[in-house]
Amino acid sequence: MDHANAKLSEEKVFKDPVHRYIHVQDQIIWDLIGTKEFQRLRRIKQLGTTYLTFHGAEHSRFSHSLGVYEIVRRIVDDVFQGRPEWNEDERLLALCAALLHDLGHGPFSHSFEKVYHTDHEQFTKQIILGDTEVHSVLHKVGADFPQKVADVIGKTYPDKLVISLISSQIDADRMDYLQRDAYFTGVSYGHFDMERILRVMRPREDQVVFKSTGMHAVEDYIMSRYQMYWQVYFHPVTRSAEVILTKILQRAKVLYQDSYHFKYYPTHFISLFEEKVSLTDYLKLDEPVILYYFQMWEEEEDAILRKLCTRFMNRNLFKYVEFDPSKQYKLLGRLEELFKEAEIDPNYYLAVDSSSDLPYDFYRPGEEEERLPIHLFMPNTELHELSRESAIVEAISGKRRTDHKLYYPQDLLLDQSKHQKTKEQILSILEKH
Question: Which of 19, 25, 223, 231 has a 20 to 30 Å separation from 357 between CA atoms?
Fold first, then answer.
């Protein structure tokens, strides 16, 4: 049987709030969606702790992955089909890479990776190449097919055009998550004219380019991305929840290393604590599992772990003030001393969190995260880099915006039943900043 070209006897459709319908005609895609590794993504939220800020943000990496697949399907089946620059043989590869690009994400990915030094991209690769249902499905296409999918996701595949569909400054991944995240958070910022962008897309040897007549739709997309990062992804309340989550994970790890006797033994965390995470252990981790432990740890003897878990589960988040680490590092040292005097551990109750984003950049050789620019296809067939033609994009090109906040437990400082003077001093310092 030719698995690469096998079609379903009848097209399957998923009803989707963003793309209306997601169409599946290929047997391999349908089989991949049914694997246990892909179904696990239903149990991992796309936006981590953002649901504590925007209550509608409960959507999963499963729905996002289907959305990215659908955008790539529309590009390769409608926009690129019949164009000489597009190799039709890469169609199924592009679809599988789009569907599986987030397969290795763990629960509350950002915090987990920071504390336990995991890497979701490495786990994506391991799932695709390891002893998994996903690997078995991909292997049906050809013995080398799983490696090809891993190479596209890892950005090492020879055909750069295929890579650019899911990994570039304007790709199917970003186009789906901006719209999907805007829809579920209820904000208006992430909306842009994707239909127009798809209409003006053109394949080139190493990347997608855009007809110059569609420049304003591309501008709109860049600005949507910029606004979503600052209004949603870097929202200070979400970051407060992220800080507490990170502190819980750190505290649990420290306690384990100190041979603390847990009331509720953290079986699922042991390989994380020891930083020897097998693929089997990793795939057992999802957000319901993590939240189960947090709920159990609300009854632990250790006061820090217990209280942090109670804060997270009941959304009793830290307050914040603006903070500039380059100018106020002495102030931070002073606050740490005062927190210790007030018997509030600054390692867990005082944190500086920084967010940084570069909304668009052109190619700067040798710099960190070299970015392929977005090119416009001009009427005279020349390619012009986007910021040369767009005053709006030029204004934000290469400009990294960074924001720092200092997080602290206001309720503990307002409780002045003991250490009243010290706590008043801390509040006075914080209120001035």
Answer: 19
Strand, helix or coil at 347?
helix
What is the rounded CA–CA span in Å between residue 90 and residue 76?
A: 9
The encoded tokens of residue 270 equal: 């042991």
The rounded mean pLDDT for the chain is 93
Q: Helix crossing, 287-297 with 303-313: angle to 10°?
A: 130
Bridge partners (DSSP) of residue 377 are: 211, 383
The torsion defined by the Cα of 257, 262, 264 and 267, in degrees rounded to 10, comes to 20
Q: How far apart are CA 274 and CA 328, in angstroms?
A: 35
Instruction: Specify the DSSP element, H or E, that contains 251.
Output: helix 236-257
Cβ atoms of residues 195 and 171 within 8 Å: no
* CA dist., res. 340 & res. 333, Å (int): 11
> What are the tens digits of pLDDT across the range 143-157?
999 999 999 999 999
> Could you give the residue ranges of the DSSP H alpha helices within 350-419?
386-389, 391-396, 410-414
Instruction: State both tokens at 26.
Output: 């290929």
Neighbours of 182 (CB within 10 A): 21
Q: CA angle, 281 as apex, 277 and 283 as ends, to 5°?
A: 115
Q: How far is CA 430 from CA 236, 351, 361, in A?
A: 16, 13, 36
Sheet with 319-322: list strands edge to edge.
319-322, 401-408, 351-357
Cβ(316)–Cβ(310) under 8 Å?
yes
